[in-house]
């Protein structure tokens, strides 16, 4: 593999075997084989089926790049829960190498190198109120809190309520956003936020 061509992949956050095939003028089967070999040699890191990043690129990733990768590991999804609350500095709890998202398809964890990407499935009725920021999708801080409360109220999640600064949340937005949620969730949020 020519070093100058390999350097072109460094500029990409992630790539597919088709990208490698195009770059090195390889047939699809040869590109897949090359990706498998370079993954085995730890030159490439496999993120998910036919999605890779370079090991040297992985080692230099910034926070926003990790969030962008989380968004592509499961589509559609957005960063939420304590990861979003930490990003918005609503919690004192700092998560290292653990990214939480909500998704429509399934609950699953991707373990890539030393980082866990955890996805929690939620019902379509509660999927929303997220924004695009720095090329990734993330819940608003109020929605991240509601996602925590919703999953907690059904025993699917646990969060450290004491670490959250409730005063940094807009209680009017929480009250408005809470309306479609089940009674169990509403009661938990009302108790925590005193609304």
Helicity range: 40-55%
Order of helices and strands: HHHEEHHEHEEEEEHHH
Give the overall form: elongated
pLDDT below 50 for ≥5 consecutive residues: which ranges? none
Radius of gyration: 19 Å
Strand content: 15-25%
* Total helical segments: 9
Mean residue pLDDT: 93
Structural class: alpha+beta
Notes on the structure:
This protein has 195 residues and is of the alpha+beta class. It has two domains: 56 residues, Arc Repressor Mutant, subunit A (Orthogonal Bundle), CATH 1.10.10; 131 residues, no CATH class. It contains nine helices and eight strands. It has a four-stranded mixed sheet with strand order 3-4-6-5. A two-stranded antiparallel sheet has the order 1-2. Strand 5 and strand 6 form a beta hairpin. Helix 7 packs across helix 9 and helix 8 packs antiparallel against helix 9.
Q: Brief description of this entry?
A:
43% of the residues lie in helices and 19% in strands. It has 195 residues and is of the alpha+beta class. The longest helix is centred in the first third of the chain and has 13 residues.
């Amino acid at each position: 593999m020519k070093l100058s061509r390999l350097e072109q992949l460094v500029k990409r956050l992630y790539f597919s075997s088709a990208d490698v095939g195009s770059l090195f003028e390889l047939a699809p089967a040869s590109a897949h084989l090359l990706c498998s070999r370079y993954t085995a040699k730890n030159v490439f890191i496999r993120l998910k089926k036919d999605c890779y990043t370079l090991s040297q690129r992985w080692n230099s990733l910034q926070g926003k790049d990790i969030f962008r990768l989380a968004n592509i590991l499961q589509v559609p999804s957005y960063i939420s829960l304590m990861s979003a609350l930490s990003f918005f500095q609503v919690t004192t709890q700092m998560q290292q190498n653990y990214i939480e998202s909500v998704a429509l398809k399934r609950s699953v964890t991707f373990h890539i190198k030393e980082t866990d990407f955890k996805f929690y499935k939620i019902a379509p009725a509660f999927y929303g109120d997220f924004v695009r920021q720095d090329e990734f999708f993330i819940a608003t801080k109020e929605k991240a809190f509601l996602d925590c409360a919703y999953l907690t109220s059904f025993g699917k999640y646990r969060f450290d309520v004491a670490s959250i600064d409730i005063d940094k949340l807009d209680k009017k937005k929480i009250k408005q956003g809470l309306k479609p949620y089940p009674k169990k969730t509403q009661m938990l949020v009302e108790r925590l936020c005193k609304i």
